[in-house]
Amino acid sequence: MTLTAPTRTMAAEPGSGATVELRDVVKSYGGVQALSGIDLVMQPGEFVALLGPSGCGKTTALRALSGLETIDSGSILIDGVDVASTPTNKRDIGMVFQSYSLFPHMTVMENVEFGLRMRRVAKAERATRAAEALEMVGLGSHGARFAHQLSGGQQQRVALARALVTRPRVLLLDEPLSALDAKVRVQLREEIRRITRDLGITTVFVTHDQEEALAVADRVAVMRAGRIEQIGTPRELYATPANPFVADFVGLTSRVPGEVVGGEVVVHGIHLPLLGEPQPDGPVFALIRPEDVALATADRAGAIGATVVSSSFLGSLRRTDFLLPDGTLIAVQHDVNDQPEVGETAHLLLRMAPVAASTREQ
Amino acid sequence: MTAVKNDSGRLAAVRIGAEPNHVVRWIILGVVGLVFAFPIFAMVEFTFRDGLSGGHTLDHWTGLFDEDAARTYRNLFTAIGNSLLLAVVTVGIVLVVLLPTMILVHLQFPRLRRVLEFICIIPITVPAIVLVVGLAPVYSVVVKVAGGSIWTLAFAYGITVLPYAYRAIQSNLDAVDVVTLSEAGRTLSAGWGRVLWFVLLPNLKRGVLAASFISVAVVLGEFTIASLLNRVNLQTALLQVSQSDPYVAVIFALLALALAFVLLLSIGRLGRTRRTGSES
User: Chain A residues with CB inside 8 Å of B277's CB?
Assistant: First the structure.
Protein backbone atom coordinates (compact mmCIF):
# COMPACT_ATOMS: atom_id res chain seq x y z
CA MET A 1 0.00 0.00 0.00
CA THR A 2 1.28 3.44 -0.84
CA LEU A 3 0.70 6.06 1.76
CA THR A 4 0.62 9.55 0.41
CA ALA A 5 1.70 12.43 2.57
CA PRO A 6 -1.54 14.01 3.73
CA THR A 7 -2.02 17.70 3.27
CA ARG A 8 -3.24 19.62 6.26
CA THR A 9 -6.17 21.67 5.02
CA MET A 10 -8.81 21.34 7.72
CA ALA A 11 -8.67 24.42 9.86
CA ALA A 12 -8.06 23.87 13.55
CA GLU A 13 -10.66 25.45 15.72
CA PRO A 14 -8.96 27.66 18.29
CA GLY A 15 -9.26 25.99 21.64
CA SER A 16 -11.22 23.12 20.17
CA GLY A 17 -9.77 20.68 22.66
CA ALA A 18 -11.76 20.24 25.84
CA THR A 19 -10.85 19.50 29.42
CA VAL A 20 -11.94 15.97 30.22
CA GLU A 21 -12.28 14.68 33.73
CA LEU A 22 -13.27 11.32 35.14
CA ARG A 23 -14.09 11.50 38.84
CA ASP A 24 -14.36 8.32 40.85
CA VAL A 25 -16.04 6.49 37.99
CA VAL A 26 -17.36 3.06 38.93
CA LYS A 27 -18.80 0.50 36.53
CA SER A 28 -19.74 -3.10 37.26
CA TYR A 29 -20.97 -5.93 35.09
CA GLY A 30 -22.92 -8.23 37.37
CA GLY A 31 -20.56 -8.88 40.24
CA VAL A 32 -17.43 -7.90 38.34
CA GLN A 33 -16.14 -4.38 38.79
CA ALA A 34 -14.74 -3.16 35.48
CA LEU A 35 -13.92 0.31 36.76
CA SER A 36 -13.15 0.71 40.45
CA GLY A 37 -13.18 4.44 40.96
CA ILE A 38 -11.19 5.90 38.08
CA ASP A 39 -9.85 9.43 38.45
CA LEU A 40 -8.32 11.07 35.41
CA VAL A 41 -7.92 14.68 34.28
CA MET A 42 -6.95 15.58 30.72
CA GLN A 43 -5.98 19.06 29.63
CA PRO A 44 -7.26 20.60 26.38
CA GLY A 45 -5.36 19.18 23.41
CA GLU A 46 -3.69 16.50 25.46
CA PHE A 47 -3.15 13.02 24.02
CA VAL A 48 -3.61 10.41 26.73
CA ALA A 49 -3.20 6.68 26.19
CA LEU A 50 -4.99 4.14 28.37
CA LEU A 51 -2.68 1.16 28.51
CA GLY A 52 -3.15 -2.17 30.15
CA PRO A 53 -3.69 -5.88 29.69
CA SER A 54 -6.97 -7.36 28.43
CA GLY A 55 -9.79 -6.93 30.92
CA CYS A 56 -8.13 -4.08 32.81
CA GLY A 57 -11.03 -1.71 32.07
CA LYS A 58 -9.41 0.59 29.53
CA THR A 59 -12.07 0.07 26.85
CA THR A 60 -14.83 0.34 29.47
CA ALA A 61 -13.37 3.69 30.55
CA LEU A 62 -13.38 4.90 26.94
CA ARG A 63 -16.91 3.66 26.32
CA ALA A 64 -18.07 5.33 29.53
CA LEU A 65 -16.53 8.55 28.27
CA SER A 66 -18.34 8.15 24.96
CA GLY A 67 -21.65 7.31 26.62
CA LEU A 68 -21.84 3.89 25.01
CA GLU A 69 -21.68 2.46 28.53
CA THR A 70 -23.54 3.92 31.47
CA ILE A 71 -21.64 4.27 34.73
CA ASP A 72 -22.78 3.15 38.18
CA SER A 73 -21.41 6.18 40.00
CA GLY A 74 -18.99 9.04 39.62
CA SER A 75 -18.84 11.94 37.19
CA ILE A 76 -17.63 12.47 33.66
CA LEU A 77 -16.94 16.10 32.92
CA ILE A 78 -16.24 17.65 29.54
CA ASP A 79 -15.25 21.30 29.90
CA GLY A 80 -16.60 21.19 33.43
CA VAL A 81 -20.05 19.95 32.47
CA ASP A 82 -21.12 16.57 33.82
CA VAL A 83 -22.15 14.49 30.80
CA ALA A 84 -22.60 11.20 32.64
CA SER A 85 -26.29 11.16 31.85
CA THR A 86 -25.99 12.78 28.40
CA PRO A 87 -26.66 10.38 25.52
CA THR A 88 -23.77 9.55 23.20
CA ASN A 89 -25.18 11.49 20.26
CA LYS A 90 -25.23 14.69 22.28
CA ARG A 91 -21.74 14.49 23.81
CA ASP A 92 -19.91 16.07 20.87
CA ILE A 93 -17.29 13.38 20.60
CA GLY A 94 -15.61 11.60 17.73
CA MET A 95 -14.73 7.95 17.94
CA VAL A 96 -12.72 5.46 15.92
CA PHE A 97 -13.37 1.80 16.61
CA GLN A 98 -11.12 -1.23 16.57
CA SER A 99 -13.19 -2.98 13.91
CA TYR A 100 -13.71 -1.15 10.65
CA SER A 101 -16.92 0.68 11.34
CA LEU A 102 -17.54 2.39 8.01
CA PHE A 103 -21.12 2.18 6.81
CA PRO A 104 -20.90 -0.37 3.99
CA HIS A 105 -23.83 1.01 2.01
CA MET A 106 -22.31 4.47 1.74
CA THR A 107 -19.38 5.80 -0.25
CA VAL A 108 -16.34 7.15 1.54
CA MET A 109 -17.62 10.70 1.01
CA GLU A 110 -21.08 9.82 2.34
CA ASN A 111 -19.49 8.18 5.35
CA VAL A 112 -17.47 11.27 6.16
CA GLU A 113 -20.47 13.53 5.59
CA PHE A 114 -22.68 11.42 7.86
CA GLY A 115 -21.94 13.24 11.13
CA LEU A 116 -22.49 16.61 9.47
CA ARG A 117 -25.74 15.38 7.94
CA MET A 118 -26.96 14.29 11.36
CA ARG A 119 -26.14 17.77 12.61
CA ARG A 120 -28.14 19.22 9.71
CA VAL A 121 -25.20 21.04 8.15
CA ALA A 122 -26.03 22.44 4.70
CA LYS A 123 -25.22 20.17 1.78
CA ALA A 124 -22.61 22.44 0.20
CA GLU A 125 -20.76 22.92 3.48
CA ARG A 126 -20.94 19.20 4.15
CA ALA A 127 -19.25 18.43 0.87
CA THR A 128 -16.51 21.02 1.45
CA ARG A 129 -15.75 19.89 4.98
CA ALA A 130 -15.82 16.21 4.09
CA ALA A 131 -13.44 16.81 1.19
CA GLU A 132 -11.11 18.71 3.54
CA ALA A 133 -11.21 15.91 6.09
CA LEU A 134 -10.41 13.32 3.43
CA GLU A 135 -7.52 15.46 2.18
CA MET A 136 -6.27 15.64 5.75
CA VAL A 137 -5.98 11.86 5.96
CA GLY A 138 -4.54 11.59 2.46
CA LEU A 139 -7.59 10.07 0.79
CA GLY A 140 -8.88 13.05 -1.13
CA SER A 141 -9.27 11.01 -4.31
CA HIS A 142 -11.10 8.10 -2.69
CA GLY A 143 -14.43 9.80 -2.00
CA ALA A 144 -16.44 7.78 -4.50
CA ARG A 145 -15.24 4.40 -3.28
CA PHE A 146 -17.01 2.04 -0.95
CA ALA A 147 -15.49 0.63 2.24
CA HIS A 148 -14.93 -2.80 0.70
CA GLN A 149 -12.76 -1.19 -1.96
CA LEU A 150 -10.30 0.13 0.62
CA SER A 151 -7.50 -1.52 2.56
CA GLY A 152 -7.74 -1.79 6.35
CA GLY A 153 -5.42 1.18 6.84
CA GLN A 154 -7.42 3.29 4.40
CA GLN A 155 -10.67 2.35 6.14
CA GLN A 156 -9.28 3.50 9.47
CA ARG A 157 -8.14 6.76 7.88
CA VAL A 158 -11.65 7.32 6.59
CA ALA A 159 -13.00 6.48 10.05
CA LEU A 160 -10.61 9.07 11.48
CA ALA A 161 -11.73 11.68 8.94
CA ARG A 162 -15.35 10.86 9.73
CA ALA A 163 -14.72 11.25 13.45
CA LEU A 164 -12.89 14.56 13.03
CA VAL A 165 -15.04 16.26 10.40
CA THR A 166 -17.60 17.37 12.99
CA ARG A 167 -14.79 19.05 14.96
CA PRO A 168 -15.63 17.19 18.16
CA ARG A 169 -14.40 18.33 21.53
CA VAL A 170 -12.88 14.95 22.34
CA LEU A 171 -11.52 12.23 20.09
CA LEU A 172 -11.75 8.66 21.36
CA LEU A 173 -9.66 5.94 19.73
CA ASP A 174 -10.49 2.37 20.69
CA GLU A 175 -7.49 0.31 19.59
CA PRO A 176 -7.83 1.68 16.06
CA LEU A 177 -4.57 0.18 14.87
CA SER A 178 -4.75 -3.32 16.26
CA ALA A 179 -6.21 -4.88 13.09
CA LEU A 180 -3.53 -3.38 10.84
CA ASP A 181 -0.19 -4.80 9.82
CA ALA A 182 2.94 -3.55 11.57
CA LYS A 183 4.16 -1.06 8.97
CA VAL A 184 0.79 0.60 8.40
CA ARG A 185 0.23 0.66 12.15
CA VAL A 186 3.37 2.71 12.74
CA GLN A 187 2.60 5.08 9.85
CA LEU A 188 -0.99 5.62 10.90
CA ARG A 189 -0.22 6.17 14.57
CA GLU A 190 2.23 8.89 13.65
CA GLU A 191 -0.35 10.45 11.38
CA ILE A 192 -2.99 10.32 14.10
CA ARG A 193 -0.60 12.03 16.46
CA ARG A 194 0.26 14.75 13.95
CA ILE A 195 -3.37 15.43 13.05
CA THR A 196 -4.59 15.57 16.64
CA ARG A 197 -1.72 17.87 17.53
CA ASP A 198 -2.50 20.13 14.57
CA LEU A 199 -6.16 20.29 15.50
CA GLY A 200 -5.45 20.67 19.20
CA ILE A 201 -8.07 18.09 20.03
CA THR A 202 -8.13 16.25 23.34
CA THR A 203 -7.58 12.59 22.52
CA VAL A 204 -7.96 9.38 24.47
CA PHE A 205 -6.26 6.41 22.90
CA VAL A 206 -6.86 2.89 24.16
CA THR A 207 -4.22 0.30 23.43
CA HIS A 208 -2.66 -2.82 24.89
CA ASP A 209 0.53 -2.17 22.95
CA GLN A 210 2.95 -0.41 25.27
CA GLU A 211 5.28 0.60 22.44
CA GLU A 212 2.36 2.28 20.67
CA ALA A 213 1.29 4.08 23.83
CA LEU A 214 4.78 5.29 24.67
CA ALA A 215 5.37 6.43 21.10
CA VAL A 216 2.34 8.68 20.63
CA ALA A 217 0.93 9.78 23.98
CA ASP A 218 1.69 12.92 25.96
CA ARG A 219 0.76 10.91 29.03
CA VAL A 220 0.05 7.25 29.55
CA ALA A 221 -2.33 5.83 32.16
CA VAL A 222 -1.42 2.25 33.01
CA MET A 223 -4.49 0.34 34.15
CA ARG A 224 -4.99 -2.89 36.03
CA ALA A 225 -8.18 -4.48 37.34
CA GLY A 226 -10.29 -1.37 36.83
CA ARG A 227 -7.82 1.03 38.41
CA ILE A 228 -5.18 3.42 37.14
CA GLU A 229 -1.90 2.17 38.56
CA GLN A 230 0.11 5.13 37.36
CA ILE A 231 -0.28 8.04 35.00
CA GLY A 232 2.63 10.01 33.66
CA THR A 233 4.70 10.86 30.64
CA PRO A 234 6.15 7.88 28.79
CA ARG A 235 9.57 8.72 30.18
CA GLU A 236 8.29 8.89 33.76
CA LEU A 237 6.56 5.55 33.43
CA TYR A 238 9.60 3.91 31.98
CA ALA A 239 12.19 5.46 34.21
CA THR A 240 10.28 5.66 37.47
CA PRO A 241 7.49 3.08 37.50
CA ALA A 242 5.33 3.45 40.58
CA ASN A 243 5.18 -0.26 41.26
CA PRO A 244 6.34 -3.63 39.94
CA PHE A 245 3.23 -4.04 37.77
CA VAL A 246 3.96 -0.83 35.87
CA ALA A 247 7.63 -1.69 35.62
CA ASP A 248 6.77 -5.12 34.31
CA PHE A 249 4.10 -3.92 31.88
CA VAL A 250 5.89 -0.90 30.48
CA GLY A 251 9.01 -2.02 28.71
CA LEU A 252 10.84 -5.30 29.05
CA THR A 253 12.11 -6.38 32.46
CA SER A 254 13.86 -9.40 33.85
CA ARG A 255 12.88 -10.66 37.29
CA VAL A 256 16.15 -11.25 39.09
CA PRO A 257 16.16 -12.51 42.71
CA GLY A 258 17.65 -10.03 45.15
CA GLU A 259 17.19 -8.64 48.60
CA VAL A 260 16.12 -5.29 50.00
CA VAL A 261 18.66 -4.12 52.52
CA GLY A 262 18.38 -0.70 54.05
CA GLY A 263 16.30 0.76 51.25
CA GLU A 264 18.49 -0.64 48.47
CA VAL A 265 18.18 -3.75 46.38
CA VAL A 266 21.14 -6.07 46.45
CA VAL A 267 21.43 -8.21 43.34
CA HIS A 268 24.41 -10.50 42.96
CA GLY A 269 26.32 -8.33 45.39
CA ILE A 270 25.53 -5.08 43.58
CA HIS A 271 23.61 -2.41 45.52
CA LEU A 272 20.96 -0.78 43.31
CA PRO A 273 18.69 2.16 44.26
CA LEU A 274 15.07 1.10 44.87
CA LEU A 275 12.25 2.77 42.91
CA GLY A 276 8.89 3.66 44.37
CA GLU A 277 7.70 3.19 47.91
CA PRO A 278 10.29 2.08 50.51
CA GLN A 279 10.10 -1.64 51.21
CA PRO A 280 11.01 -3.63 54.31
CA ASP A 281 14.18 -5.66 54.22
CA GLY A 282 13.71 -9.09 52.72
CA PRO A 283 13.84 -11.12 49.55
CA VAL A 284 12.48 -9.52 46.37
CA PHE A 285 12.54 -9.82 42.63
CA ALA A 286 14.43 -6.90 41.13
CA LEU A 287 12.87 -5.82 37.83
CA ILE A 288 15.84 -5.02 35.64
CA ARG A 289 15.63 -3.39 32.20
CA PRO A 290 17.66 -4.92 29.36
CA GLU A 291 19.46 -1.60 28.81
CA ASP A 292 20.57 -1.59 32.46
CA VAL A 293 22.72 -4.66 31.94
CA ALA A 294 25.93 -4.54 29.92
CA LEU A 295 28.32 -7.08 28.51
CA ALA A 296 31.60 -6.98 30.40
CA THR A 297 34.95 -8.63 30.62
CA ALA A 298 35.61 -11.23 33.33
CA ASP A 299 38.10 -8.99 35.14
CA ARG A 300 35.56 -6.24 35.82
CA ALA A 301 34.52 -5.90 39.46
CA GLY A 302 30.97 -7.17 39.95
CA ALA A 303 30.87 -9.06 36.65
CA ILE A 304 28.47 -12.00 36.70
CA GLY A 305 29.17 -15.09 34.63
CA ALA A 306 26.22 -16.15 32.43
CA THR A 307 25.43 -18.48 29.53
CA VAL A 308 23.88 -17.30 26.27
CA VAL A 309 20.43 -18.81 25.72
CA SER A 310 19.24 -16.92 22.67
CA SER A 311 20.02 -13.77 20.77
CA SER A 312 17.82 -11.62 18.53
CA PHE A 313 18.81 -9.05 15.95
CA LEU A 314 16.54 -6.01 16.35
CA GLY A 315 17.93 -3.74 13.65
CA SER A 316 19.88 -1.04 15.46
CA LEU A 317 20.60 -3.22 18.47
CA ARG A 318 20.66 -6.81 19.64
CA ARG A 319 18.86 -8.40 22.57
CA THR A 320 20.33 -11.52 24.16
CA ASP A 321 18.91 -13.74 26.89
CA PHE A 322 21.43 -15.07 29.39
CA LEU A 323 21.07 -17.74 32.05
CA LEU A 324 22.57 -16.69 35.38
CA PRO A 325 24.20 -19.26 37.70
CA ASP A 326 21.09 -19.26 39.94
CA GLY A 327 18.88 -20.29 36.98
CA THR A 328 17.45 -16.81 36.36
CA LEU A 329 16.93 -15.65 32.79
CA ILE A 330 18.06 -12.07 32.16
CA ALA A 331 17.69 -10.04 28.97
CA VAL A 332 20.50 -7.76 27.86
CA GLN A 333 20.37 -5.08 25.21
CA HIS A 334 23.70 -4.48 23.57
CA ASP A 335 25.60 -3.32 20.53
CA VAL A 336 24.55 -5.03 17.35
CA ASN A 337 28.19 -5.79 16.55
CA ASP A 338 28.52 -8.04 19.60
CA GLN A 339 27.20 -11.38 18.45
CA PRO A 340 27.22 -13.91 21.27
CA GLU A 341 26.78 -17.55 20.28
CA VAL A 342 24.20 -19.72 22.01
CA GLY A 343 25.86 -21.78 24.75
CA GLU A 344 28.80 -19.40 25.01
CA THR A 345 29.78 -18.01 28.42
CA ALA A 346 29.90 -14.25 28.88
CA HIS A 347 30.06 -11.75 31.72
CA LEU A 348 27.43 -9.19 32.61
CA LEU A 349 27.54 -6.01 34.61
CA LEU A 350 24.53 -4.39 36.25
CA ARG A 351 24.36 -0.64 35.77
CA MET A 352 23.64 1.48 38.79
CA ALA A 353 20.13 2.36 37.63
CA PRO A 354 17.19 2.48 40.02
CA VAL A 355 15.06 -0.66 39.89
CA ALA A 356 11.56 -1.60 40.96
CA ALA A 357 11.18 -4.65 43.13
CA SER A 358 8.35 -7.04 43.85
CA THR A 359 8.21 -9.16 46.96
CA ARG A 360 8.80 -12.89 46.83
CA GLU A 361 8.32 -15.71 49.27
CA GLN A 362 11.45 -16.71 51.20
CA MET B 1 -11.08 -35.20 5.29
CA THR B 2 -10.47 -38.82 4.57
CA ALA B 3 -7.94 -40.63 2.37
CA VAL B 4 -8.75 -42.99 -0.52
CA LYS B 5 -6.62 -44.62 -3.19
CA ASN B 6 -6.87 -43.06 -6.62
CA ASP B 7 -6.32 -44.69 -10.05
CA SER B 8 -2.58 -44.64 -9.69
CA GLY B 9 -2.84 -46.33 -6.34
CA ARG B 10 -1.76 -43.24 -4.43
CA LEU B 11 -3.58 -41.93 -1.46
CA ALA B 12 -5.70 -38.92 -2.27
CA ALA B 13 -7.61 -36.68 0.09
CA VAL B 14 -11.38 -36.57 -0.36
CA ARG B 15 -13.38 -33.82 1.25
CA ILE B 16 -16.48 -35.18 2.89
CA GLY B 17 -19.43 -32.86 2.45
CA ALA B 18 -17.67 -30.86 -0.27
CA GLU B 19 -19.71 -28.93 -2.81
CA PRO B 20 -20.69 -31.17 -5.77
CA ASN B 21 -19.07 -30.43 -9.11
CA HIS B 22 -20.78 -28.65 -11.98
CA VAL B 23 -22.21 -31.74 -13.70
CA VAL B 24 -23.57 -33.26 -10.50
CA ARG B 25 -25.20 -29.98 -9.64
CA TRP B 26 -27.00 -29.82 -13.00
CA ILE B 27 -28.12 -33.45 -12.67
CA ILE B 28 -29.57 -32.77 -9.20
CA LEU B 29 -31.21 -29.58 -10.46
CA GLY B 30 -32.63 -31.44 -13.49
CA VAL B 31 -34.12 -34.29 -11.44
CA VAL B 32 -35.60 -31.97 -8.82
CA GLY B 33 -36.82 -29.63 -11.57
CA LEU B 34 -38.58 -32.51 -13.33
CA VAL B 35 -40.30 -33.59 -10.13
CA PHE B 36 -41.67 -30.08 -9.70
CA ALA B 37 -42.22 -29.30 -13.37
CA PHE B 38 -44.27 -32.41 -14.15
CA PRO B 39 -47.36 -31.56 -12.04
CA ILE B 40 -47.11 -27.89 -13.04
CA PHE B 41 -46.99 -28.87 -16.69
CA ALA B 42 -50.01 -31.15 -16.08
CA MET B 43 -51.86 -28.20 -14.50
CA VAL B 44 -51.07 -25.96 -17.45
CA GLU B 45 -52.15 -28.64 -19.90
CA PHE B 46 -55.36 -29.18 -17.93
CA THR B 47 -56.31 -25.49 -18.23
CA PHE B 48 -56.26 -25.80 -22.02
CA ARG B 49 -58.40 -28.96 -22.19
CA ASP B 50 -61.66 -28.75 -24.00
CA GLY B 51 -63.77 -30.84 -21.65
CA LEU B 52 -63.68 -34.52 -22.36
CA SER B 53 -63.39 -34.02 -26.13
CA GLY B 54 -59.64 -34.58 -26.01
CA GLY B 55 -58.95 -31.25 -27.78
CA HIS B 56 -57.46 -28.04 -26.43
CA THR B 57 -58.89 -24.52 -26.23
CA LEU B 58 -58.01 -21.06 -24.91
CA ASP B 59 -61.60 -20.52 -23.74
CA HIS B 60 -60.86 -21.14 -20.05
CA TRP B 61 -58.20 -18.42 -20.07
CA THR B 62 -60.05 -15.88 -22.21
CA GLY B 63 -63.24 -16.56 -20.28
CA LEU B 64 -61.66 -15.01 -17.21
CA PHE B 65 -61.94 -11.60 -18.82
CA ASP B 66 -65.64 -11.90 -19.80
CA GLU B 67 -68.16 -9.75 -18.02
CA ASP B 68 -70.16 -12.87 -17.16
CA ALA B 69 -67.11 -14.48 -15.67
CA ALA B 70 -66.44 -11.40 -13.58
CA ARG B 71 -69.87 -11.84 -12.01
CA THR B 72 -69.43 -15.60 -11.65
CA TYR B 73 -66.05 -15.36 -10.08
CA ARG B 74 -66.70 -12.23 -8.04
CA ASN B 75 -66.00 -14.23 -4.88
CA LEU B 76 -62.69 -15.34 -6.27
CA PHE B 77 -61.63 -11.78 -7.05
CA THR B 78 -62.78 -10.72 -3.58
CA ALA B 79 -60.68 -13.55 -2.15
CA ILE B 80 -57.65 -12.38 -4.12
CA GLY B 81 -58.17 -8.90 -2.69
CA ASN B 82 -58.49 -10.39 0.78
CA SER B 83 -55.29 -12.38 0.42
CA LEU B 84 -53.38 -9.36 -0.86
CA LEU B 85 -54.70 -7.26 2.04
CA LEU B 86 -53.70 -10.02 4.46
CA ALA B 87 -50.26 -10.19 2.88
CA VAL B 88 -49.79 -6.43 3.32
CA VAL B 89 -50.97 -6.41 6.95
CA THR B 90 -48.89 -9.49 7.78
CA VAL B 91 -45.78 -7.90 6.29
CA GLY B 92 -46.66 -4.78 8.30
CA ILE B 93 -46.77 -6.85 11.49
CA VAL B 94 -43.38 -8.38 10.64
CA LEU B 95 -41.84 -4.97 9.98
CA VAL B 96 -43.43 -3.11 12.88
CA VAL B 97 -43.30 -5.79 15.59
CA LEU B 98 -40.75 -8.47 14.75
CA LEU B 99 -37.99 -6.40 13.10
CA PRO B 100 -37.62 -3.74 15.84
CA THR B 101 -37.84 -6.46 18.50
CA MET B 102 -35.05 -8.44 16.87
CA ILE B 103 -32.85 -5.37 16.48
CA LEU B 104 -33.49 -4.36 20.08
CA VAL B 105 -32.65 -7.85 21.36
CA HIS B 106 -29.54 -8.00 19.16
CA LEU B 107 -28.23 -4.63 20.33
CA GLN B 108 -29.41 -4.28 23.91
CA PHE B 109 -30.48 -7.68 25.24
CA PRO B 110 -28.31 -10.31 23.54
CA ARG B 111 -29.04 -12.76 26.35
CA LEU B 112 -32.68 -12.85 25.23
CA ARG B 113 -31.74 -13.96 21.73
CA ARG B 114 -32.21 -17.67 22.41
CA VAL B 115 -35.56 -17.01 24.06
CA LEU B 116 -36.74 -14.96 21.09
CA GLU B 117 -35.52 -17.59 18.68
CA PHE B 118 -37.37 -20.29 20.60
CA ILE B 119 -40.59 -18.26 20.60
CA CYS B 120 -40.31 -17.54 16.89
CA ILE B 121 -39.63 -21.15 15.97
CA ILE B 122 -42.61 -22.55 17.93
CA PRO B 123 -45.24 -21.95 15.20
CA ILE B 124 -43.38 -24.24 12.79
CA THR B 125 -43.65 -27.09 15.28
CA VAL B 126 -47.41 -26.69 15.77
CA PRO B 127 -49.63 -28.00 12.98
CA ALA B 128 -52.01 -25.37 11.57
CA ILE B 129 -55.03 -27.37 12.63
CA VAL B 130 -53.82 -27.45 16.23
CA LEU B 131 -53.05 -23.74 16.00
CA VAL B 132 -56.63 -23.07 14.94
CA VAL B 133 -57.97 -24.92 17.99
CA GLY B 134 -56.13 -22.39 20.13
CA LEU B 135 -56.92 -19.46 17.87
CA ALA B 136 -60.68 -20.06 17.69
CA PRO B 137 -61.47 -18.76 21.21
CA VAL B 138 -58.94 -15.96 20.75
CA TYR B 139 -60.71 -14.88 17.57
CA SER B 140 -64.07 -14.79 19.28
CA VAL B 141 -62.53 -11.99 21.39
CA VAL B 142 -60.76 -10.43 18.38
CA VAL B 143 -64.06 -10.22 16.52
CA LYS B 144 -65.66 -8.44 19.48
CA VAL B 145 -62.80 -5.96 19.75
CA ALA B 146 -61.73 -5.37 16.15
CA GLY B 147 -64.75 -6.64 14.23
CA GLY B 148 -64.90 -9.55 11.82
CA SER B 149 -62.96 -7.92 8.97
CA ILE B 150 -60.70 -10.17 6.98
CA TRP B 151 -57.56 -8.21 7.94
CA THR B 152 -57.81 -9.46 11.53
CA LEU B 153 -56.70 -12.84 10.20
CA ALA B 154 -53.28 -11.21 9.76
CA PHE B 155 -52.74 -11.54 13.53
CA ALA B 156 -52.78 -15.31 13.10
CA TYR B 157 -50.68 -15.11 9.94
CA GLY B 158 -48.22 -12.89 11.77
CA ILE B 159 -47.63 -15.89 14.03
CA THR B 160 -47.41 -18.48 11.26
CA VAL B 161 -44.80 -16.50 9.32
CA LEU B 162 -42.64 -15.89 12.42
CA PRO B 163 -40.19 -18.78 11.88
CA TYR B 164 -39.51 -17.84 8.26
CA ALA B 165 -39.32 -14.10 8.82
CA TYR B 166 -37.16 -14.57 11.93
CA ARG B 167 -34.63 -16.73 10.11
CA ALA B 168 -34.39 -14.33 7.15
CA ILE B 169 -33.79 -11.29 9.36
CA GLN B 170 -31.52 -13.09 11.82
CA SER B 171 -29.14 -14.32 9.15
CA ASN B 172 -28.79 -10.74 7.93
CA LEU B 173 -28.25 -9.49 11.49
CA ASP B 174 -25.53 -12.10 11.96
CA ALA B 175 -23.82 -11.08 8.73
CA VAL B 176 -23.56 -7.38 9.62
CA ASP B 177 -21.76 -5.91 12.63
CA VAL B 178 -24.85 -3.96 13.66
CA VAL B 179 -23.51 -3.26 17.14
CA THR B 180 -20.44 -1.39 15.89
CA LEU B 181 -22.37 0.32 13.09
CA SER B 182 -25.03 1.58 15.47
CA GLU B 183 -22.39 2.74 17.96
CA ALA B 184 -20.55 4.52 15.18
CA GLY B 185 -23.81 6.18 14.17
CA ARG B 186 -24.50 7.32 17.71
CA THR B 187 -21.02 8.80 18.16
CA LEU B 188 -21.73 10.75 14.96
CA SER B 189 -24.69 12.53 16.57
CA ALA B 190 -27.44 10.23 15.30
CA GLY B 191 -30.21 9.34 17.74
CA TRP B 192 -31.64 5.83 17.83
CA GLY B 193 -34.33 6.60 15.22
CA ARG B 194 -31.81 7.95 12.75
CA VAL B 195 -29.40 5.10 13.43
CA LEU B 196 -32.22 2.70 12.60
CA TRP B 197 -33.30 4.54 9.46
CA PHE B 198 -29.97 5.68 8.00
CA VAL B 199 -27.58 2.97 9.21
CA LEU B 200 -29.28 -0.27 10.18
CA LEU B 201 -32.19 -0.64 7.76
CA PRO B 202 -30.08 -0.07 4.61
CA ASN B 203 -27.76 -2.82 5.80
CA LEU B 204 -30.63 -5.12 6.75
CA LYS B 205 -32.50 -4.50 3.50
CA ARG B 206 -31.82 -7.97 2.15
CA GLY B 207 -33.11 -9.74 5.24
CA VAL B 208 -36.11 -7.46 5.57
CA LEU B 209 -37.13 -7.95 1.93
CA ALA B 210 -36.59 -11.70 2.16
CA ALA B 211 -38.75 -11.83 5.31
CA SER B 212 -41.43 -9.77 3.57
CA PHE B 213 -41.49 -11.87 0.40
CA ILE B 214 -41.55 -15.14 2.33
CA SER B 215 -44.40 -13.77 4.44
CA VAL B 216 -46.35 -12.87 1.28
CA ALA B 217 -45.74 -16.34 -0.16
CA VAL B 218 -46.91 -18.03 3.05
CA VAL B 219 -50.03 -15.86 3.28
CA LEU B 220 -51.00 -16.46 -0.36
CA GLY B 221 -50.71 -20.21 0.16
CA GLU B 222 -52.50 -20.44 3.51
CA PHE B 223 -55.73 -22.47 3.61
CA THR B 224 -56.27 -24.24 6.93
CA ILE B 225 -56.57 -21.30 9.30
CA ALA B 226 -58.78 -19.28 6.94
CA SER B 227 -61.01 -22.23 6.25
CA LEU B 228 -61.45 -23.28 9.88
CA LEU B 229 -62.04 -19.70 11.02
CA ASN B 230 -64.59 -19.26 8.22
CA ARG B 231 -62.70 -16.55 6.37
CA VAL B 232 -62.41 -16.18 2.62
CA ASN B 233 -58.95 -16.00 1.12
CA LEU B 234 -57.45 -17.10 -2.18
CA GLN B 235 -57.04 -20.74 -1.21
CA THR B 236 -60.51 -21.20 0.28
CA ALA B 237 -62.07 -19.51 -2.76
CA LEU B 238 -60.07 -21.71 -5.10
CA LEU B 239 -61.48 -24.78 -3.38
CA GLN B 240 -64.96 -23.38 -3.71
CA VAL B 241 -64.53 -22.52 -7.39
CA SER B 242 -62.95 -25.86 -8.18
CA GLN B 243 -66.22 -27.54 -7.26
CA SER B 244 -68.05 -25.61 -10.02
CA ASP B 245 -65.23 -24.85 -12.51
CA PRO B 246 -62.05 -26.86 -12.00
CA TYR B 247 -60.34 -25.13 -14.93
CA VAL B 248 -60.54 -21.68 -13.37
CA ALA B 249 -59.44 -23.03 -10.01
CA VAL B 250 -56.34 -24.52 -11.58
CA ILE B 251 -55.65 -21.31 -13.54
CA PHE B 252 -55.69 -19.26 -10.35
CA ALA B 253 -53.62 -21.86 -8.53
CA LEU B 254 -51.07 -21.55 -11.33
CA LEU B 255 -51.08 -17.77 -11.09
CA ALA B 256 -50.59 -17.96 -7.32
CA LEU B 257 -47.69 -20.37 -7.87
CA ALA B 258 -46.20 -18.02 -10.45
CA LEU B 259 -46.43 -15.09 -8.02
CA ALA B 260 -44.77 -17.11 -5.26
CA PHE B 261 -42.09 -18.19 -7.74
CA VAL B 262 -41.40 -14.60 -8.73
CA LEU B 263 -41.17 -13.59 -5.08
CA LEU B 264 -38.71 -16.36 -4.26
CA LEU B 265 -36.69 -15.53 -7.37
CA SER B 266 -36.55 -11.92 -6.21
CA ILE B 267 -35.14 -13.07 -2.87
CA GLY B 268 -32.47 -15.03 -4.72
CA ARG B 269 -31.66 -11.96 -6.82
CA LEU B 270 -31.40 -9.81 -3.71
CA GLY B 271 -29.06 -12.36 -2.20
CA ARG B 272 -26.72 -11.90 -5.12
CA THR B 273 -27.01 -8.13 -5.30
CA ARG B 274 -23.72 -6.43 -4.60
CA ARG B 275 -22.98 -2.97 -3.56
CA THR B 276 -21.74 -0.64 -6.24
CA GLY B 277 -18.19 -1.36 -7.26
CA SER B 278 -16.27 -4.58 -7.37
CA GLU B 279 -14.83 -6.42 -4.43
CA SER B 280 -11.18 -5.60 -3.95
Answer: 145-146, 148-149
